[in-house]
Amino acid sequence: MGTNHITKLEDPIDVMLLMHKAFRALSDRTEALVAKAETIEDIEELNEVFGFWVNQILYHATVEDEVMTSPLQNSQPARDNETEHAELAGKAGDLVKFIGLGNSAGLKESVREAAFSLEEEQHKELEERFHEVEDALAQVLGEKKVTARTIRHLHSRLMGVRILELDHFENEEAFVCSLVREEIDEAGQLYMVRRLLIDDSAENPRWIIDWVHSELDPSEQVLLEELEARFQGAAQPA
Asked: Can you tell me the distance from the alpha carbon of 23 to that of 134, in angstroms, rounded to the nearest whole number?
């Protein structure tokens, strides 16, 4: 994962690269606001930007759990592995193949379970870290006093959030998105992407996709626009 220019989306779920880039830009700005904060007005601006960041990441994590990780976990490929193992075990000539597949399949499933466990833990920890920063901001705003110690305290807590966020994105891109590509067809991915980018419950359903679009380079904006045309034109599950 990095800040490199994104030139192509191989699969619909690759929109996560664009979304993660947008999140990094937002967290960069938030950190910069902490670094330059000197007055209570600066803290008020920081509080507003941080609140937007919180709303974005919590919506993102909630929808991920609902439409990405939960369906993947419920697919339980381990059951398929068990069926394959039983069939192979019944064929004497395939015994060696069975043993080899058993080891590799077991390892793959262990990695899979670890990735989902890490995803869930990171979502919970991100929420906890965000609340810590919110509490620190509320305290400063309540005291209406900004000191060097206050800024160090806020910066330290914010860096904790940023590091966890980056770790979370790396896990998603390395493991979860790879599983989506392997196990979810294009129609399913387009549904996931629409849910991640369009919030039908909000007064402005486009508050996410419009923000992501604003954080991207012009050619990346075109990629997002083309993907939106695809998922808006796709049939949605009943």
From this structure: 18
User: Can you tell me the distance from the alpha carbon of 57 to that of 62, in angstroms, rounded to the nearest whole number?
Assistant: 9
Q: Where do the DSSP E strands lie in 32-182?
A: none
Splitting the chain (238 residues) into consecutive groups of 10 residues, what average pLDDT does each group show?
76 95 92 86 87 86 83 53 38 37 43 50 68 74 77 82 83 83 91 95 96 97 96 72
Calculate the CA dihedral of residues 228, 196, 191, 122 and round it to 10 degrees: 140
Integer angstrom CA distances of residue 78 from 58, 59, 66, 110, 178: 30, 30, 21, 10, 17
Q: How much of the chain is helix, strand and coil, in % rounded to 5?
A: 85, 0, 15
CA-CA distance, 180 to 186, in Å (whole number)?
Answer: 10
What span, in angstroms and rounded, lies between the C-alpha atoms of 96 and 101?
9
Give me the long-range contacts of 48-57 (CB less than 8 A, separation at least 24).
50/133, 50/134, 50/137, 50/158, 51/134, 52/26, 53/23, 53/26, 53/27, 54/130, 54/134, 56/23, 56/26, 56/208, 56/211, 57/23, 57/126, 57/130, 57/165
The alpha carbon of residue 199 and the mean position of all alpha carbons in its chain are separated, in whole angstroms, by 16
Task: State if pTM tops 0.85.
Answer: no
